[in-house]
Amino acid sequence: MTSIARVGVLSVHTSPLDQPGTGDGGGLNVSVREVALRLAARGVHVDVFTRATDPDVPPTVTMADGVQVHHVPAGPLAPVAKAEVANVLCAFTLALQQHPAAGTHDLLHAHYWLSGWVGRRVAERFDVPLVQTFHTLGVLKNATLAPGDQPEPALRLVAEERVARHADRVLVLTCGEARLLHRTYGLSGARLTVVPAGVDLDRFTPGPRTGARAASTAPELLFVGRLQPLKGPDVAVRTLAEVRRELPTARLRIVGGASGAAATGPAQLRALARELGVADGLVLEPAVDQGTLAQYYRDADVVLVPSRSETFGLVALEAQACGTPVVAADVPGLEAVVGRGGTLVPGHDPADHAAAVLRYLTDDHHVAAARKAGLAAAARASWDRATDRLLDVYRDVVEQRDRRRRTEVEATRATA
Asked: How far is 140 from 180, CA to CA, in rounded Å?
């Protein structure tokens, strides 16, 4: 069996050290961090390369034994909008190629299209395989554009196509994403592998409510995620308004930071709540650490995930691991995660989402069934299982590259 000793991970626009739910931090950050830690536990050294954004952060941070995060200088030593990161990709590529760890890896794994753009060039420079995970695709986002959101630029669409065609293997989070890549770019099944994201089953577990929630009988809804049109926090607020027609004491907690377009930032959500007459039932909080988030899931009666588009519903999976029912939009990335542990609602009509929520708030048997099914689904989706699957893919990709090289050498000898 091929041994994988060192892996280079590219996460150009966001670092696994960043707080999920703020800026550009989200499921990608969680995935890179959790997998890197588990690869290291299996004896694989992981170098994560991300853009340097803070002069006070060291060039290299050891996240754990066997996991180092390298901050590559490219552009200003400050955060920049994700849409502007493309302007510094050439600088990032040149700096990475000169990094002491460059060229020492068995393969590179790029996350998101910006990293893929860099990975394509660096992998060619050092003659190593490239594995690509897009997490989101521009063609899908543009096809399901949310009100107030901006379409993805042509540069991204062209880059995604070239990276998809160049990578030795494209990893997808769901079968739906695989079908989209096949239809859009003609990728064969041999170059696509489904590796679903996981959930930390040590942290996200069922448990009692705490603090004020332990004594409260008011229904509580929870929305977790970046505050951007794509994620639908406006739908969550409108759903609260519909639920309160039947249950006036219901409340909605929104946890997350503004990201991208400001059409659904905190100020806009507060204004919407005032317009709908539910401002007294809305609580807005910044992103929190994973331990606090787990307790928020336990404290909630229902978790809302009304995304207009979702590649993989990590929030929905975490909520189910805590035994909390989920009401989510029926989009491909959520369809793959939300089974009988929740309810998938066609479209984004708040009245439809509220109807699904009200059933959980008024039917204990419905809640119990969803809780049981959600816990069972989450138990099958651990990060350890995802990491084992990923390591198998790494070995396969390296073996294929080695076989191809041997074939080329033999062909050269035969014609010499």
From this structure: 8
Instruction: State the number of CA atoms in the 13 A half-sphere of 183 facing the CB.
Output: 9
Same fold, 6-198+383-415 and 211-379: yes
Q: For 162-177, what is the mean pLDDT? A: 93
**pLDDT single digits (tens) 204-227:** 999 999 888 888 889 999 999 989
Residues 5-49: tens digit of each pLDDT: 999 999 999 999 987 655 566 788 889 999 999 999 999 999 999
Which residue shows structure tokens 């639908």? Answer: 232
Do 77 and 101 contact (CB within 8 A), yes or no? no
Q: Tell me the percentage of the chain whose pLDDT exceeds 90.
A: 74
178 half-sphere exposure, CB direction, 13 A CA radius: 16
CATH 3.40.50.2000 corresponds to the domain 6-198+383-415:
yes
Q: What pLDDT does 100 receive? A: 96
- Going from N- to C-terminal start, the domains of the chain cover 6-198+383-415, 211-379
Please give the residue that has the higher pLDDT: either 30 or 144.
30
Higher pLDDT, 354 or 217: 354
Distance (Å, rounded) from C-alpha 92 to C-alpha 225? 28
The mean per-residue pLDDT over the stretch 235-249 comes to 98
Q: Tell me which CATH homologous superfamily contains domain 211-379.
A: Glycogen Phosphorylase B; (3.40.50.2000)
